[in-house]
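Re: duplicated header lines in exported structure tokens

Our pipeline writes sequence and tokens for each protein into one text file. With two proteins the header for the second block appears twice in some exports. Here is an export where it did not happen, for reference. First protein block:
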Amino acid sequence: MTQPETPKSSADEPWPVRVVSQKLSAWIAKLGWVWVDGQVAQISRRPGASVVFLTLRDPSADLSLTVTAHRDVLDAGAPELAEGARVTMHAKPEFYPARGSLSLRADEIRQVGLGELLARLERLKKLLGAEGLFARERKRRLPFLPQRVGLITGRASAAERDVLMNTRRRWPSVDFRVINVPVQGPTAVPQIIDAMKVLDNDETVDVIVIARGGGSVEDLLPFSDEALCRAVFGCRTPVVSAIGHETDAPLIDYVADVRASTPTDAAKRIVPDLAEETTLIQQARRRLDRAVITLVDRESHRLESWRSRPVLARPEVLVDQRETEVNALRDRATRSLDQRLRRADDDLRHTLARLRALSPKATLERGYAIVQRPDGHVVRAADEVETGDLLRVRLADGELRAEVQ
């Protein structure tokens, strides 16, 4: 026999609180039993009580749930359970209408051992590597001299002191923006991610350093968290990882642009050493001085060599030689021109003599005359004229007018 459906709520017919609580409880109960993985943020064991209260937190997000378990369940699965430990539990969500709260009821709790944690980290390492988060070509170079360094570390920690002291020892004027966060425990990852976002959005920060001292594998687990690795990968600002000692290798070391073996090593990587740079500058200046002196000496010797040559030692010699050559060329040109003029004069005289020998004037000078009619026709025979014709008689010197009789 089916139960009648509860009519839908409306402004005129609202549901009572108990109905809403019943419906929430029914919907949550549909999820059933599930396996849950998380980190124990708090344990409450009341003396004489058979129920233990746990706060289970997501390591990668600021979320937590209350868990209730029988003391026997906790003693059977994780008798040495402490805050900060990773656990896997079989639990069912339950809604308590009287308090309006949601919690998990666990019937089995397993504490994650070191071997399983390392296996999980290895699987996560392969996953992130396959996605390219460890690719060497995407890693950025650190600026030679950052304007400002962002530092994320624990409050008043040895790592903070090492980074600040050694960095300022190397470059006294370096500027820091320090954000102190928990570096272990359930709240470490969310706060580190929030601090990275703040520094990444700060335009004055040129490099971000995440530093922590050494510790056990469990203490360094936040720095192998997937959410933190992806946050480091998404940063626009270069990130330096300085976690633990040289032998420690959390996953953030593979994602960061630069891995420093220790916080002290991070100081050596983010800023140059002022003393070393000053020494390098002095050495460079000395090399430059030697190079300039060598160049000047070489050019001076070259000038001396040029000056010792005859053309520069006695420059008038070259002028005298050219003057002699010019005079010789001018004399030769003068002689050649005179010779040509004389030859041309002789040719002209010979031609003139031949011309004169062949000229009619020469014939006239020997007593002959040229007789012409008025129209200029030369008379060569007597029958070419008639009596009374006027003629022009050309002589060697002058001419006459004559009439034929």
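Second protein block, exported in the same file:
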Amino acid sequence: MLCGFGVRRLAGKLFDFIAADRGNVAAIFAFALVPLLGFIGAAIDYSRAVAARTSMQAALDSAVLMAAKDLAQGTITTSQISAKVQSYFTGLFTYNGAQSIVVSATYTAPSGSGNATIQATGAGEIKSDFMQIVGYPKLGFSTSSTSTWGASLLRVALVLDNTGSMANYNKLGSLQSAATSLVSQLSKLAAKDGDVYISVIPFEIDVNVGTSNVGASWLRWDLWDPKNYPNASAPYQTYCSGGYWMTYAQCVGHGYSWNHTPNTSNKSQWNGCVTDRDQNYDTLSTAPSSTGTFFIADQDQSCPTAPILPLTYNWTAVNNTINAMTAQGATNQTIGLLWGWLSLLQQAPMNAPAESPTNTYQHIIVLFTDGLNTGDRWYGDFQSTSTQVDNRMSTLCTNIKNSGVTIYAVQIDTDGAGPSAVLPACASDTSKSFLLTQSSQIATAFSQIGTSIAKLHVSR
């Protein structure tokens, strides 16, 4: 250990060395100082160049993502991509001291072997503070970013409210316009046929599976009666002992008696409607294999005019189904959601296209409704909100999300009924829940959903 005298003596010697101007001491120190300053200065200049490159990387990543979204939404063409990337980059790159910035972007169209990409490159330089001493007045840096979309294949179910109140405030027309725009937006994400599939599920109390399924093995006919009214003198009274506007299945489900013997042998009068299947299968995706799991043929007079459309990439068929929708009937969101879920599965009754184990798939339901649940096969008077139907739906929503499906939930409330008690929680997260008050807002909501679904992937 050095004593106080030793420390003073060592300090004195060091001072003598620094102050020395005789012999080789000063020269040695001078020669040593140049590379020492060079190393320190190089570290400082290099760290500034790294910071500039990092800032450029972040700006490029954001710029190509934003340009790709614009392209997917149809707001720019492929010839405008480079200019758009440069414009976005200029607004995003804020590093002070960078010079001679050059940014360019190229677009590669989708092909059978690859997805569409936008690749951007950037380069620049900074003026060095120390490296110029050793002959490097400037330090250059460069980076690149590639945006690829369509890498995750899409399976999207559009579950759309067709109830009577959709006729008000141009809600149905606005929905049809917004939904077809969403179809156009999503279809552009496909590199090839089959990368994007869309199904359409119009619903009210029931869904229409189409009369072409009259012979399907998964249908039940024991609660079906083609006649709902006893005679012309009582046009609003069904054969149900205690309920108006009820079908055979709804009447029995609500605990009433059906005062008619149906002729189930003649199914030619069936309108394609099905109602909720037995509990708890009304909230489960169980494939039909026995009576309890079969789907119950119904004869709802307000059956959706547009039958459900299984997953397809025939965009004309998708748009035709959307445009064929009409407004009638009461609200049972549960049955629409269930069939939306079923449309994403490779099993009866919807038999979705097979999925390759080598690909990644996003399974998505977009639920749109303008009302609150008022009835199903067992509960509700079809006019007032039914907490019991909400409870069935809440269970179903949980089961769907637990299966890995993403749910977007959109409610439009033009009548002041207030937000649904179940829809916000049904959505996968708060960013996927929308409460609208005007028909003009539907287009914006669907556009936001389309942008979210795109889920662009950035790779370097």
